[in-house]
Amino acid sequence: MTAQVASFSLYRVGAMVLRHWYLLRSSWPRLLELVYWPAVQMFMWGFLQLGVGKLPGALAGTVSTFLAAFLLWDILFRGQIGYSISFLEEMWSRNMPNLMISPLRPTEFVIALTIMSVVRLSIGLIPVTILAIVFFGFNFWSLGLALAAFFANLLMTSWAVGMFCSGLVMRHGLGAESLAWSLMFFFLPLTCVYYPVSVLPEWVQPISWALPPTAVFEGMRALVIDHAFRADLMLWALGLNVLWLAAGAVSFLWLLRGAKTSGSLIQIGE
User: Fold this and answer.
1) What is the DSSP string of 60-118?
2) pLDDT tens, position by position, 180-238
3) What is the number of structural domains in the chain?
4) Rounded-to-integer distance, Cα 75 and Cα 80, Å
5) CA 117 – CA 85 distance, rounded (Å)
6) Global pTM value
7) Domain range spanning residue 11?
8) Within a domain: residue 1?
9) 20 to 30 A Cα–Cα from 24, which one of 2, 63, 124, 173?
């Protein structure tokens, strides 16, 4: 155990982060992509919120959650995509075999990818939240300390899914790449991003509550509509995320071992 801990190197983690940071900052299309699509969706949901907000009745009272729900969903989705794209950059450049025979440990690789996930997310999220303030008067940061709980729980879920997707691509090649882009959308209806869990069929609701983001979105609605912070929901999400992260790490290592055994790492794209 001591030898394994001692062999962990922050320098190798930093080298991987720098490698991806240099790649990102040297390509304006990559930087533009991080802001473009979140901004387009923010304007769509923002104008919808303005339009529906003018209607009378209860709907007008709950529509204020649209922009908050979208921005939280974007944290979840972009956190996972940022993780997966950083991994896919290694696959596209056929650099994975080189990394696997280098001193870089799987743990260091995973940590570097999580750091880049936060970097890529921040580049896209901060400008979009500023646009939301300027055009729609919605200050995402006014959620206060609750935002930190939302942010942390959503990021942990995104990393767990990102590890699983990366493992699948390692094991099955770039033929599984589409899962990295689409798997998170499986959670969109089940995590109740834009509506409460109560609208789901009763037999679906236990499945929904087993997904950590569900508690985050329910907590967001409680905060925006009722001005109440639901610490119980955040603790529930945290407990689930511990299990999800453990499952994601185990699946990544298991799929990596399978990729090494089958030789799929040297047959990238085939």
Assistant:
1) HHHTTHHHHHHHHHHHHHHHHHHHHHHHHHHHHTT-HHHHHTSS--HHHHHHHHHHHHH
2) 888 899 999 999 999 999 999 999 999 999 999 999 999 999 998 888 999 999 999 99
3) 1
4) 8
5) 9
6) 0.90
7) 6-266
8) no
9) 173
